[in-house]
Amino acid sequence: xxxxxxxxxxxxxxxxxxxxxxxxxxxxxxxxxxxxx
Length: 37
Hints:
The protein has about 35 residues and is mainly α.
């Protein structure tokens, strides 16, 4: 249970970081994210 909560917290902070990026960086992120998959 604690592990799940930690994953959610990390995901939320990750989304907050994304919000700080400009649209140009968002395009780079999408490319990077596809590479991870």
